[in-house]
């Protein structure tokens, strides 16, 4: 039981770090190239 909880915590931390890094990279691309910054669908048609 204890090993399962530790594995769940590790998976959550890895997922959180991955999400933050993708958002940070997207913001960096928006600042340098003007592209990016659109992680959600554009509904303004």
Task: Describe this structure as you would to a colleague.
By secondary structure, this protein is mostly helical. 71% of the residues lie in helices and 0% in strands. The chain is built from one helix and no strands. The chain is rod-shaped. The termini are far apart. The model has no long low-confidence stretch (mean pLDDT 79).
List keywords for this structure.
transmembrane, about 45 residues, mainly alpha, 1 helix, rod-shaped, about 70% helix
In short:
By secondary structure, the chain is mainly α.
Outline the secondary-structure elements.
Layout: H1 2-33
Transmembrane segments: 5-25
Keywords: Membrane, Transmembrane, Transmembrane helix
Rg measurement, Å: 16 Å
Low-confidence spans: pLDDT under 50, at least 5 residues?
none
- Net shape: rod-shaped
In helices, the fraction of residues equals over 70%
Question: In percent terms, what proportion of residues is strand?
Answer: under 5%
Secondary structural class: mainly alpha
Report the order of strands and helices: H
Gap between N and C termini, in Å?
A: 51 Å
Mean pLDDT: 79
Q: Total helix count?
A: 1
* Main sheet record: none
Keywords: Membrane, Transmembrane, Transmembrane helix
Transmembrane segments: 5-25
């Amino acid at each position: 039981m204890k090993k399962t909880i530790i594995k769940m915590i590790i998976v959550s931390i890895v997922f959180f770090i991955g999400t933050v890094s993708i958002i940070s990279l997207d913001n960096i691309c928006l600042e340098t190239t003007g592209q990016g910054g659109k992680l959600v669908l554009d509904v303004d048609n």
